[in-house]
User: What shape does this take?
Amino acid sequence: MSEPRTQFATRLGVIATTVGSAVGLGNIWRFPYEAGAHGGGAFLLLDLLFIFIIGVPVVCAEFIIGRHTGKNIRGAFRALAPGKSWGLVSYVGLTAAIMILSFYSVVAGWTMHYTVSSVTEFSGRMSTAALHDRFDSFASSDMAVVWTLVFLTANYLIISRGVQKGIEKMSNILMPILFITLLVFTINSLMMPGAIDGVTFLFKPKFSEITPAVVLSAMGQAFFSLSLGLGCLITYSSYFKKETPLVRTSFITAGLDTMVAILAGVIIFPAVFTFGQEPTAGPKLVFEVLPSIFSSISGGVIWSTLFFFLLFLASITSTISMAEITTAYFSEEFGLSRKRATALTIALAMVFGSLCAMSFGSLGHITIFGMTLFNLFDYVSSNILLPLGGLIISVFVGWVLDRSIVNSELTHSDRPASRVITRMVVFCLRWLAPVCIGIVFIFGLGIF
Ligand code: TRP
Assistant: This one.
């Protein structure tokens, strides 16, 4: 049998691990490139709406399920709705978790390479074209696959150590360092000549840019960034103590997560306009823009190394949360030891992650629905599976789950949520979230 279930040791640990899961490449890499490709301010506005109107209540819903049952996602649904098909949503979650872990590890591998090459190859000012070539030649090489595998191995080493010793300890140390570094970079970017253009691009919504596809992407981004919709937060909250205030924790997570995404935008876009780059560059945006910032400031080698190293650390606190979903599932449902369950998760991600990494090089010619494997994994998991999972979870908690469980989970803590807040959360789960997600799906996917 698997080991007895642990809990996060401290309140700081709960916040650091949950925020550690939420804050990652989604904020610093994905948000700027999605916002850049979809009109800047308009995308940010939609993203914020989705985060606070739908995201926060659905985060609460995942917390309610996880903390109440104290189980992995399959076990949780079995405990709450025995014999019903609601548990099928766990399979959506498990599939999406492996998909996201796979492509995410490719990008995390890039951050490891860039950390190392910041030291070994830093060559001062490089032209935009040279930065472009540098990224392309690396991402299409076999080394990109190697770094993906190295990154996943690092995950194995942390997760197999267990919840408190591995996950919680890492997050407590790393998250504060990340915040401070981001602030330093923000100030630096705001002093660049292109600062005004960059900030205007990010904050001034051009409503003409809003199309159904942009709305769908913004919804996907909100879910992705909050680690929402595939049971990651169900799994993490199963390690929460009974006193942990759920509504408060979800607001703190959403608030800090949003702050980091906005800081990342304020770091990236002024540099994009200062160095004459294109905001629409896609996944490589951050990897081409950041080095141009570093090459323009004194002590660039140190900043570059530090930044990519922190980005790597932010990635790993997120990937351990994805891997924990299937690890908890394999170990609790099939009685595997924690080490074996972790190994199985990481092995699956290694196979699909290598394929995703190769889709920037030797497998680049293989496209499905016009997307490479990497883009397909990202699109399907973020824009379809996460909101679908979120839809089912909100309907389940809003309509099916016993109201007394919902109320007691939301209010029984040392800082209980008020009745008004509790009612608002329930209203969002019953009506707002399902209706909004449904409408965005219908139009964004072009069903009509
Ligand atoms: N939220 C993380 C980020 O922004 C990524 C992430 C971690 C995630 N766990 C998840 C995304 C679960 C979806 C589901 O980088």
